[in-house]
């Protein structure tokens, strides 16, 4: 899901190339307001869809959107450079999904001190109020939904769980992990991150960084140490796809429940096909559209958005279970990320 046939310029370079064009337009009298969008990566389908939504919303409202991204999850330096470039370009508002929730805060403060509205999309900063507002999935609830479903599907069979997480300390990854464990009826992340203290049901924990290739490697390593794994939690669908490949290569794909968070069209199709047991569907198009709307409201009226806006989440499963409300995968294909 992350393989691209064409080489990509680094995110800071992409922004740098955009600036002369933007400034040239301004010199000709183009008075469109500038809104920035900074995502974690260019290739993750979730952020590709978020960018599409922001571009559509900005065009509809007569704004210029400049998009940038880190090279990978955790690339704080690339996002800092993007903020600096957007400030130089005269951006009035910046929408950002932070790779490093703490390290990005000084750069965000610099932008806000300059009078720029900054809204977090998908991932909160640490502290949350480092941005003016947060438009995001309730990630803890997303984790709870798939944890409850996995527990119900497993029934009385003893759990042997592998968790493929994001990166240490990231709030989105922690919230989903915590929620999954809570939904499954196990202690939370903070008490279990130390492997010596983790509950016996969790036999393997690995950071796959939301990446398909890393998810496959992590799952292969988990299987080598614990071939009896029967439940796999993944922080997103690219890492779930990697986990499924590893299980299939080991001939174990039919005996393991894989649950995840995203709800992309491809992910929902994987639920239909049986490569993914269940997923929690979130809505990046809505995040982007609401973010652009808030940015334009600020630009026109100086009124700043504030607080947290829940952009929705639904459990998607092929087979429903009693006591855990879910949307059928067939219906979810008509809702995936707002595509249709």
From TrEMBL:
<dbReference type="InterPro" id="IPR028082">
    <property type="entry name" value="Peripla_BP_I"/>
</dbReference>
<dbReference type="GO" id="GO:0030246">
    <property type="term" value="F:carbohydrate binding"/>
</dbReference>
<comment type="similarity">
    <text>Belongs to the bacterial solute-binding protein 2 family.</text>
</comment>
<dbReference type="GO" id="GO:0030313">
    <property type="term" value="C:cell envelope"/>
</dbReference>
<protein>
    <submittedName>
        <fullName>Sugar ABC transporter substrate-binding protein</fullName>
    </submittedName>
</protein>
<dbReference type="Pfam" id="PF13407">
    <property type="entry name" value="Peripla_BP_4"/>
</dbReference>
<keyword id="KW-0732">Signal</keyword>
<dbReference type="InterPro" id="IPR025997">
    <property type="entry name" value="SBP_2_dom"/>
</dbReference>
<feature type="domain" description="Periplasmic binding protein">
    <location>
        <begin position="35"/>
        <end position="300"/>
    </location>
</feature>
<feature type="signal peptide">
    <location>
        <begin position="1"/>
        <end position="29"/>
    </location>
</feature>
């Amino acid at each position: 899901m992350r393989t691209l046939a064409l080489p990509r310029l680094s995110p800071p370079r992409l922004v740098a190339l955009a600036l002369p064009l933007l400034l040239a337009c301004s010199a000709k009298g183009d008075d469109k307001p500038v809104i920035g969008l900074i995502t974690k990566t260019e290739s993750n389908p979730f952020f590709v869809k978020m960018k599409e939504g922001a571009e559509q919303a900005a065009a509809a409202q007569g704004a210029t959107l400049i998009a940038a991204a880190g090279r990978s999850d955790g690339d704080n330096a690339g996002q800092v450079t993007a903020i600096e470039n957007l400030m130089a370009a005269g951006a009035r508002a910046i929408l950002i999904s932070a790779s490093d929730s703490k390290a990005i805060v000084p750069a965000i403060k610099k932008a806000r001190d300059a009078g720029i509205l900054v809204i977090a999309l998908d991932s909160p900063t640490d502290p949350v109020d480092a941005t003016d507002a947060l438009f995001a999935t309730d990630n803890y609830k997303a984790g709870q939904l798939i944890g409850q479903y996995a527990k119900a599907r497993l029934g009385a069979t003893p759990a042997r769980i592998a968790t493929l997480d994001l990166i240490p300390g990231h709030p989105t990854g922690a919230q989903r992990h915590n929620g999954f464990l809570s939904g499954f009826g196990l202690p939370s992340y903070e008490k279990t991150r130390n492997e010596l203290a983790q509950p016996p049901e969790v036999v393997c924990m690995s950071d796959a960084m939301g990446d398909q290739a890393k998810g496959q490697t992590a799952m292969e390593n988990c299987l080598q140490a614990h071939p009896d794994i029967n439940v796999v939690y993944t922080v997103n669908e690219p890492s779930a796809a990697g986990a499924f490949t590893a299980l299939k290569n080991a001939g174990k794909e039919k005996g393991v429940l894989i649950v995840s968070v995203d709800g992309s069209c491809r992910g929902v199709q994987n639920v239909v096909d049986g490569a993914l047991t269940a997923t929690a569907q979130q809505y990046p198009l809505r995040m982007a559209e609401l973010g652009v709307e808030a940015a334009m409201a600020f630009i026109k009226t100086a009124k700043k958005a504030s607080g947290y806006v829940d952009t929705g989440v639904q459990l998607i499963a092929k087979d429903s279970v009693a006591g855990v409300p879910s949307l059928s995968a067939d219906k979810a294909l008509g809702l995936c990320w707002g595509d249709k």
